Amino acid sequence: MSLRSVSLFFCALALSVSAHAHEYTLGALHIGHPYARATVPGQPSGGAFLSIENTGKEGDKLIGVSSPAAKNAEIHTMSMDGNVMKMREVGEIELPPTATVDMKPGNGYHIMLIGLTQPLKAGDKFPLTLTFQKAGKIDVSVQVTDMSGKAAEPAHQH
To answer: Which key words tag this protein in UniProt (predicted)?
Structure first.
């Protein structure tokens, strides 16, 4: 492989990564890569995931979520009790100073989208409003990925 080919490969890789990364800042809060996994037709609910980093010196709390993609959005936690998955709504998520909360599939916190207005399709996006006790509200765009967590490639336009 030539040096030019290697350079072109890494440039394409960097563009691909930056095209899929989306981050938001609200005061001292950094919200990283909001995404949801695609659902199948008729599936009544889905989950959204993201990270929240509090870079400030004061704590805050995520106290609410909402989206037009679902009749109701709730902050949930998930845990395993032996072979049984237990999910429950939590009213808020504490965000201590200099801490990060990672919402990931199968791991702790997530945003439950209940009563989806339509199936979530890979490549689509939908709005999500996050409400924090101190920092206020921010609207983010949630990217829908396939079940592996990969974003669908955008359609090529001419």
So the answer is: Signal
For the domain that residue 48 is a member of, what is the CATH number?
A: 2.60.40.1890
Task: Find where tokens 């899929």 sit.
Answer: 20
Report the candidate in 68, 37, 45 with the shortest Cα–Cα distance to residue 116: 45
CA 55 to chain centre: 19
Give per-residue pLDDT as tens, 31-72.
999 999 999 989 999 999 999 999 999 999 999 999 999 999
Distance of CA 42 to the CA centre of its chain: 22
Reported residue count of the chain is 158
**How far, CA to CA in Å, does 127 sit from each of 29, 39, 144?**
18, 17, 11
**Domain-located, residue 38:** yes
Q: Is residue 4 part of a domain?
A: no
Q: What is the helix (H) or strand (E) element at residue 100, kind and residue range?
A: strand 100-102
Q: Does 156 reside within a domain? A: no
Query: How many CB atoms within 10 Å of residue 77?
Result: 16
Interval 81-123: pLDDT, tens: 888 878 889 989 999 999 999 999 877 899 999 999 999 999 9
**Residue 134 covered by a domain:** yes
Q: Is the per-residue pLDDT at 155 higher than 80?
A: no
